[in-house]
Automatic annotation (TrEMBL):
Protein name: Protein kinase domain-containing protein
Listed Pfam families: Pkinase (PF00069)
A GO term for molecular function: ATP binding
Keywords on record: ATP-binding, Kinase, Membrane, Nucleotide-binding, Serine/threonine-protein kinase, Transferase, Transmembrane, Transmembrane helix
Family, as annotated: Belongs to the protein kinase superfamily.
Positions of the Protein kinase domain: 161-392
Residue ranges of the TM segments: 6-25, 78-102
SUPFAM superfamilies with a match to the protein in the record: Protein kinase-like (PK-like)
Family annotation (InterPro entries): Kinase-like_dom_sf, Prot_kinase_dom, Protein_kinase_ATP_BS, Ser/Thr_kinase_AS
PROSITE patterns attached to this UniProt entry: PROTEIN_KINASE_ATP, PROTEIN_KINASE_DOM, PROTEIN_KINASE_ST
PANTHER family: OS01G0750732 PROTEIN, PROTEIN KINASE DOMAIN-CONTAINING PROTEIN
Length: 392
C-alpha cells in the first residue's frame, strides 16, 4: 500500500512533467518546419538563355543563421532537461523496485520460518524450544550432553503422575503421557531403581540414545533423577506400541497391508543402522513388538535400549542372559552366544506377528505353550492363513 502511494505521488507527476516538456519541444520545432520565413532570402534563378526547370520555378527561402542558433540553444536546453528527468526517473524506479523485492523477501522469510516452526511442532521435533524450558544444567556423556529436566516440571506435566496418563507398564515401571507448555506432548518413562542393574540400565539407555540419532529410533529429550527414581523423557508416539495395535482391543484392524510393510521396513532400517553404521555397533538384545512404537502416521521407531550392549564387548561369562520369551534366539538361549543375529531372529518373530496377527507365545493348554516359530514350522494351516492374509 505504501509503495502504491509513493508511485502515485512521485511517479505520476514526473511522467506528466516529461510529457509537457515533450509537447513544448515539439511546439518549438514545428513552426520552423512548416512556416515560411520573411527574413532575407536568396533567390535562385536561371540564365535567360536557358529554359527554366519546373523544379526550380519556385523561390527557395533559407532561415537566417541567428534564428537557427537560438532554436539550437533552446533545443539543447530541453534535451538536457529531458535527460536529467529521465535519469532521475530511472533512479526512483530502481529504488522502488529494490524496496519492493526486499519487502517480498522479508515476507517470504517470515512465512517460511512460521511454516518450519509449525511443521516441527506437529512432528514433535522442536526439541530446542522444549529444552529451553527445561533446566539449563546438562549432563556430559561420552558423545555429547543431555538435558536435565526438573522433577517439578514432570509432576506438573503428568498431573502428579496420574493413572489417567499411564500409556503402558512393564517390569521397569510405567510410561506416562506428559503435556508441557504450548501443548507439547512427550512420554515419561519412570524407573524405580532398586539395585545396581537398574541403575546401569538407566545410564546405558541415556548414553546410547544420546549418541544414536536416526529417524527410525526414538528421540531422547532429557532425563531426571529424583531420590531413588529415574525418569527418561522421549518424544511421544501417538499410536502406541506395535504390540498394542496387533494384540489389543482393535486386533490390528487399523494396520493395513501397506502399513504393516512400512512398519517392517522402518524396523529393518533401524536395525541396519545399529548393526552396520554405529561405531561401535550396537545389539539391542530386547527387540519385540512392545518396543516398536508408532507415531500418528504409523511410522515405526525402536525404543527401550536398557539391555542394549556394544558389539564385541560381551561374552557369555559376564553378560546376564536377558530378553523376552518368544523373541530370544536359540543359540543365545542355549549357549549364551550373543551376536547381531540375535536381533535379526527377534525381527523375524515380529514379521510373523505382522503376517499372522498371532502373539509370539500362546498358551495352548493350561500347562503347554507354543511359540509362533514352532507353530509356523509344524502347522498345516500356515499356507492357507497366509493366503487369506494376502487377500486383505
Amino acid at each position: 500500500m505504501n509503495l502504491l502511494l509513493l508511485l502515485r505521488s512521485v511517479f505520476v507527476p514526473i511522467c506528466l512533467f516529461c510529457l509537457s516538456l515533450l509537447l513544448s519541444f515539439n511546439n518549438a520545432r514545428l513552426p520552423d518546419l512548416i512556416t515560411p520565413i520573411s527574413s532575407p532570402t536568396t533567390t535562385i534563378t536561371t540564365n535567360a538563355n536557358q529554359p527554366i526547370s519546373p523544379i526550380f520555378a519556385a523561390t527557395v527561402q533559407v532561415v537566417s543563421p541567428g534564428m537557427m542558433k537560438n532554436n539550437h540553444h533552446m533545443n539543447k536546453r530541453i534535451l538536457i532537461a529531458l535527460i536529467v528527468v529521465s535519469c532521475a526517473l530511472c533512479a526512483i524506479l530502481s529504488t522502488l523496485f529494490c524496496l519492493w523485492i526486499f519487502r517480498l523477501k522479508k515476507k517470504s522469510h517470515k512465512s517460511d520460518s512460521k511454516s518450519v516452526q509449525r511443521a516441527d511442532t506437529v512432528r514433535g521435533l522442536s526439541l530446542g524450544t522444549i529444552s529451553g524450558k527445561f533446566n539449563s544444567i546438562r549432563r556430559i556423556s561420552k558423545k555429547g550432553s543431555v538435558s536435565i529436566i526438573e522433577y517439578q516440571l514432570l509432576e506438573a506435566a503428568t498431573d502428579n503422575f496420574s493413572e489417567s496418563n499411564i500409556l503402558g507398564e512393564g517390569g521397569f515401571g510405567c510410561v506416562y503421557k506428559a503435556c508441557f507448555d504450548n501443548n507439547f506432548l512427550a512420554a515419561v518413562k519412570r524407573m524405580d531403581v532398586g539395585g545396581q542393574d537398574a541403575e546401569r540400565e538407566f545410564e546405558k539407555e541415556v548414553d546410547l540414545l544420546n549418541r544414536i540419532q536416526h529417524p527410525d529410533i526414538i528421540s531422547l529429550l532429557g532425563y531426571c533423577i529424583h531420590d531413588e527414581t529415574r525418569f527418561i523423557i522421549y518424544e511421544l508416539m501417538q499410536n502406541g506400541s506395535l504390540e498394542r495395535q496387533l494384540h489389543g482391543p482393535s486386533h490390528g484392524s487399523a494396520l493395513t497391508w501397506h502399513i504393516r510393510m512400512k512398519i517392517a521396513l522402518d524396523t529393518a532400517r533401524a536395525l541396519e543402522y545399529l548393526h552396520e553404521n554405529c561405531n561401535p555397533p550396537v545389539i539391542h538384545r530386547d527387540l519385540k513388538s512392545s518396543n516398536i512404537l508408532l507415531d500418528s502416521n504409523f511410522k515405526a521407531k525402536i525404543s527401550d535400549f536398557g539391555l542394549a550392549v556394544i558389539s564385541g564387548s560381551q561374552n557369555k561369562n559376564n553378560i546376564k542372559l536377558s530378553g523376552t520369551l518368544g523373541y530370544v534366539a536359540p543359540e543365545y538361549l542355549l549357549d549364551g552366544k550373543l551376536t547381531d543375529k540375535s536381533d535379526v531372529y527377534a525381527f523375524g518373530v515380529i514379521l510373523l506377528e505382522l503376517l499372522m496377527g498371532r502373539k509370539p507365545v500362546e498358551k495352548m493348554t493350561p500347562t503347554q505353550c507354543q511359540s509362533i516359530v514352532t507353530w509356523v514350522c509344524i502347522g498345516s494351516n500356515f499356507s492357507s492363513d497366509m493366503n487369506c492374509f494376502l487377500e486383505l
